[in-house]
Amino acid sequence: MLRKARAHLAREDGNVESALVLIPLLILFLIGAQIIAVTNLRNADLAMAQGDAAARAISHEFQPSDEIFEIGGRFERIRVLVTHRSHTVPQLVPGLRELMGGVPATDVVGIAVIEPINQ
Known about the structure:
With 119 residues, the chain is of the alpha+beta class. The protein has helices at 2-11, 13-59, 96-100, and strands spanning 67-72, 77-88, 105-113.
C-alpha cells in the first residue's frame, strides 16, 4: 500500500510544479488588470470632471465644493473654476488594500474659465 501511495505521489509531481508557476502568474495578471482598471477609471473621471467644470462655468451654477480663483491685472480679471472628483478603486487583487495601507482612490481636477455674464 505504501508503494502505491508513493507511486501515486510520484505521478503528481507535475501538478505541484504547475501550481507553483500558475499562482504567481495569476497574481501578476490580477495586478496588471488592477493597473489597467485604475488607469481607465481615472481617465473617465478626468473627462467627467472637465465636462462638469465646463458646464458649470458656462451656466454659473456652482457647487459648494467648487473653487473659484481670480487671475489677471488691473484692466481685465479672469475667473477660473476648479472642480474635484474622486472615486474609490475596485479591488481585484485580494489583500492589496491592506498592503497599500488604505483605501486607494482616484482624485482628478477639472478646470474651466468662467464666462462673463452679458446683460
